[in-house]
Amino acid sequence: CMPELIGDTPVPFMSRIEAELGVPVFWTSKTRPGGALYSAWIEKLLDETQFASKRDPRAVLLAGVPSPAAREQATELCAALGVRVLGTIFPDLDFRRTPQMREASAVVWLDPVGWETIGDGPFLRHDLAVVRHHPPYGVAGTLAWLGRVASVLGLEGADQAFARVLEARAEDLDALRTQCRRRTVALIGDTADLELLVASRRALGFSAATLLGELGFNVRCLVYGPGGKADASRLRRARSPSGAGTIEFIPFSSKAQLDRQLARGVDLVFSHLNHDPRLEARGLLGFTEAAFEPGLDGLLRSGRRLLAKCEARPFPRHRGHLAL
To answer: Does residue 91 have a cis peptide bond before it, meaning omega lies within 30 degrees of 0?
Structure first.
């Protein structure tokens, strides 16, 4: 905000950082669209890359990789298709760390959510195909992502490749579901809030309710509506594709009604509040979308993480004292 608010220039500051760290710095602003600037910067980096005259049609760059564990899972999924991952871009923009990228024929987005301002144009102009799809969260999401990668790259065998990856984890997943089926997770909000958590992939890149159902949790959606007029009918969705968990919708219109529902066998609640007295009074912990990770290994880690939160509740005989 320096140029817009106080009329100052960021150039000296940027120059000092570049001199100290030896990395290029560019300035972005929240007051104007940044897509063109990002595209120009990426175009510059790609122009400086000496691509091979003959590229490997099965060699790709991963983009939007949130963690080393996510990269490992994405690399395994690609390998199941016979695709070789050369390196990652975004959030890492230093192409010098990926010298093999000159052989790449495509950019495969693992999780494009939050990177919408990065257009496909610069990559396409450098003969790089772009795979941009919903991120591979959960069983159904991973299968869909793998199918899109295969489709764009002109490959076959996505279903068979996924079956092999799933089979290697089937025993662990079944054991985890057995434990999760004993637990109930609550998603709370008005119809707009729950639309984002139950049906929409636009905000998070996945449906939290679907992932919980794939893990085996019983999902209870508590829908707020003034005067008891909450309309959950348009939110109703079928059981998760794996058929592991259940989902139900219950309206409420007051704090007392919400408290009664929280006392009715709920083990965990989706909440962005670090200290929510409504949950603390019932000895309940919260979780957010950050609990979920992409891929099947990520699904297993997510389930174990959520189960640990469920098991961290105070003993039932102690919970009655928490509201005091």
So the answer is: yes
Closest CA to 188 of 258, 112, 130, 254: 258
pLDDT tops 50 at residue 238: no
CA distance 230 to 47: 55
For strands 285-287 and 218-224, give the pairing: unpaired
Beta-bridge partner residues of 137 = 295
Residue by residue, DSSP assigns 199-220 as I--TTTSS-HHHHHHHHTPEEE
Check if the beta carbon of residue 121 is closer than 8 Å to that of residue 76: no
SS3 state of residue 89: strand
Q: Residue 243 pLDDT > 70, yes or no? A: no
| 59-to-41, 103, 253 alpha-carbon distances in Å | 23, 7, 54
- Residues 195 and 178: their CA atoms lie apart, in Å, by 28
For residues 111 and 65, what is the distance between their CA atoms, to the nearest angstrom? 6
The alpha carbon of residue 86 and the mean position of all alpha carbons in its chain are separated, in whole angstroms, by 22
Cβ 231 vs Cβ 225: under 8 Å: yes
Q: What is the DSSP letter of 112?
A: -
Between CA 126 and CA 137, with CA 131 as vertex, the angle to 5 degrees is 150
Would you state the pLDDT for residue 125?
Answer: 93
Give the separation between CA 98 and CA 285, rounded to whole angstroms.
42
The whole-model pTM stands at: 0.83
Report the pLDDT value the prediction gives residue 172, as an integer from 0 to 100: 95
| Exposure string over 173-184, b if 16+ CB within 10 A, otherwise e | beebbebbeebb
**Residue 33: what residue type?**
P
CA Rg value for the chain? 23
What percent of the chain is modeled with pLDDT above 70?
A: 85
